[in-house]
Amino acid sequence: MATKATATIQAxxxxxxxxxxxxxxxxxxxxxxxxxxxxxxxxxxxxQSDVPNVGDYHTLEYLGESIIVVRGQDGDVRAFTNVCxxxxxxxxxxxxxxxxxxxxxxxxxxxxxxLEGKLVGVPLKQSYPGLDQSKHGLVPVDLDVWRGxxxxxxxxxxxxxxxxxxxxxxxxxxxxxxEDLRAFGRVTLRPRHVNWKNVGDNYSDxxxxxxAHPGLTRLxxxxxxxxxxxxxxxxxxxxxxxxxNNPSEKAYQKYLPHVPYLPEERQKLWTYFKLWPNVAxxxxxxQVDFMQWLPVSPTETLIREISYAVPDDRREMxxxxxxxxxxxxxxxxxxxxxxxxxxxxxxxxSFTVGPLAETExxxxxxxxxxxxxxxxxxQHRSPPPGWSRRPHAAN
Length: 395
Prior knowledge:
Layout: H1 3-10, H2 27-38, E1 43-47, E2 56-62, E3 65-71, E4 77-81, E5 96-98, E6 103-105, E7 112-114, E8 119-121, E9 142-146, E10 149-153, H3 162-166, H4 170-173, E11 182-192, H5 196-203, H6 209-212, H7 214-220, E12 225-228, E13 232-238, H8 247-255, E14 269-275, E15 279-283, E16 288-297, E17 300-309, H9 315-346, H10 361-373
Antiparallel strand pairs: 1-10, 2-3, 2-5, 3-4, 6-7, 7-8, 9-10, 11-17, 12-13, 13-14, 14-15, 15-16, 16-17
């Protein structure tokens, strides 16, 4: 584990314990998390290649907000709330599209905005005396681009950029040509009846791999590893030379072709990066997937994911990508079963907190950060209602 993470974890008096069960279902804690954790955090929307032309847009909906990312006339990408400044109507529908006539026109009263967010058209403008159009443009949203991927955040709390968050491992990402990625397939939305933290805990957990994922164990043996830095977890597993007895896994091992732009040590390596607090990249030799778990309610989460790849028309590569999907479809089914069991078990009055092994570095780091932002998470039982309205200070 990284030195920085080790030093921080040792300073936390609750380092050896998980977050208490009540924080995975309590409405007041959920509201505090949304305000203090999710609103200031970066959320991935799409890749720059998804909005290649002027007027192309993608949307992201979470926490009651709809965000639109659109490419302007100057070629730059900007983000705004998908809300007309007249009566608050949604400007566009659906996950993606292209602005007609290179303007965003409200379907309610036809107020129109240019691709830079300026209010440029008001029907019956003379009936709005004193209207200053310069003050009624679309509301901008913070935007960051890291290696071709576009991120937004609802509030700026002075936290690090995406590049700063993943800086400890950026050199490992560099060979994969993220900027050249193109989407294949479509964005998939998967509802789960669990708390959002439950999904993230499972993603960064290494101890369950040999117990609950026989396919990954056949592919990786005992080579699965976990590390934690301040704002990013790294998990990885090398694909073994010994062929699996599972047909899909065996075929993947046999047909995965050599990738000319990757160093030899990454030709058969699966690497996973989780960015604080709820975005992850699964990096394979054959493709790259992003995954985020968007909180919906204290016990509901929407998993959003899509696959990208550097264009490669080789038959072996197409086969490898299909087999990758088959393998990970089973892994996802196993994880869905696991997190549901954890969520159900946390409802028991008999369970408060669980001990964390010293090797559970990613979970320890996540719990520390949550406790720093919401100190009440140190309490094993939920405090009296109204606790979140008292002034708080991060540790």
